[in-house]
Specification:
Elements lengths: L8 E5 L4 H12 L3 E6 L2 H13 L6 E5 L5 H15 L4 E4 L14 H11 L1 H16 L3 E6 L22 H20 L4 E8 L5 H6 L5 H6 L9 H12 L10 E4 L8
Parallel strand pairs: 1-2, 1-4, 2-3, 4-5, 5-6, 6-7
This protein binds nicotinamide-adenine-dinucleotide (NAD).
Length: about 260
Amino acid sequence: MTGRLDGRVAIITGAGQGIGLAYAQRFCAEGASVVVAEIDPDRAAAGMTALRDAGHGDAVHLVQTDIADEDSAQACAAATVERFGALDILVNNAAIYHDIENQNNDPGYLKQVFDVNLHGAWLMSRACVPHMVERGGGRVINQSSSAAYLYQLPPMGEFREVGAFSYSQTKWGVIGLTKFLAVQLGEHGVTVNCIAPGVTMTEATRKQVPEEFMPFVTMMTAMKRELQPEDITGAAVFFASDDARMVTGQVLCVDGGMAMPG
Ligand SMILES: NC(=O)c1ccc[n+]([C@@H]2O[C@H](COP(=O)([O-])OP(=O)(O)OC[C@H]3O[C@@H](n4cnc5c(N)ncnc54)[C@H](O)[C@@H]3O)[C@@H](O)[C@H]2O)c1
């Protein structure tokens, strides 16, 4: 059987669980070799077990990685080339989401979230793109969120302080990073695109979004049903595939029809 990503080599950050793991499963099923670049050893081990159980043992490789650390990002790219002989696709999926402290307005905390969610995507791109350019091209796929577009909050009463909105700020930043990188890298054969998922039923969402709030979330979508991680993966395969060779600098909202920007 031929897959849409046969022979390609991808790094997927944060692929130990959730949407990143779903991306890894789908990329393997489409014929790609995948490096799981995950910071958390328990999540990494669980993700690798799930991938092996699905029959992808030969196509996956774990490189424990902290995307916010430049040396770690560089080591991940180098280890990928060493293991699979190439590097074609980077999926910048990792972020502080499962453990995000949405009400934390401390400037130090805001910086910490930026270091991972935005700066980490840049560090990984910086580490991986030279390997792609060497081979004549590649793909960077960034992960934003519908949270980047949802500016309208209900009235919050008396003014206390200026909020940090750390998660949303970083996810909006990822959209900007996508466009700047796309312009810089296009002439080198590298496309850079972005996926903005809506509220997706992962363990992280179950932790972050109260269960009783979910019907309200789905009511806000055109499709009126919950998003599953597998619903997001087709967009990543498209951006990674040859069909998207002239698509760059774009944001695709996979949210059941909620944000609808543009
Ligand atoms: N689930 C949703 O509703 C939703 C919606 C929109 C966007 N997103 C985005 O999709 C991505 C995945 O979401 P998820 O629900 O699977 O969340 P998640 O928190 O379960 O997954 C993120 C993964 O990234 C890893 N990670 C965190 N910091 C890292 C670092 N410094 N280096 C390497 N790995 C690191 C975590 O250990 C975790 O496995 C995130 O970027 C998230 O912001 C999620």
